[in-house]
Amino acid sequence: MTKPERLKVRQELLREHLRNSSFRARWENTALARAVALRLVGYRAQHRLTQTALAAKLGMQQPAVARLEAGDKNPTWETIARISRALGIEFLVNIAPPGRRRLMGGRVEHAEVVETVATDTGRITIAAS
After folding, report:
1. Which pTM was predicted?
2. 85, 95, 96, 91: which is closest to 114 by C-alpha?
């Protein structure tokens, strides 16, 4: 299966799961966790680091990095700040009410949008550079 085919299957599967209200609520609530996880995994792969080596850079234990990379629980703002300082990653988080889209002052054009979630109560966009 080619990469575009796998992506299509993943998107269809996600769309199907999002019809389930409890899954959708969990998905919306962990948007930040998934964004941080994707950025950490990407950083680690790009720099060819083990979780243990990344943990040392972050001043954490390896199990803490494993939990962050799992993306199941939102990290604290203190943890996000620690990651930013240690790795030089800028995280941009935009939370807007329904019907209003804010572009983070043009900063998104220099960042990769990692996660966008539209909820009943608003829209959350998370980017990292």
Report:
1. 0.71
2. 91
Sequence ranges of the domains in the chain: 3-128
What is the token pair recorded at 86?
A: 């240690």
**Which CATH architecture best describes the domain 3-128?**
Orthogonal Bundle (1.10)
Residue tagged 């804010």 (tokens): 102
What are 83's strand-pairing partners? none
Distance CA 78, CA 101 (A): 26
Say how many Å lie between the first and final Cα of the chain, rounded: 30
Q: Among 5-14, 40-49, 101-110, which stretch is predicted with the lowest mean pLDDT? A: 101-110
List, in order, residues 6 or more apart from 116 with CB less than 8 Å away: 123, 124, 125, 126
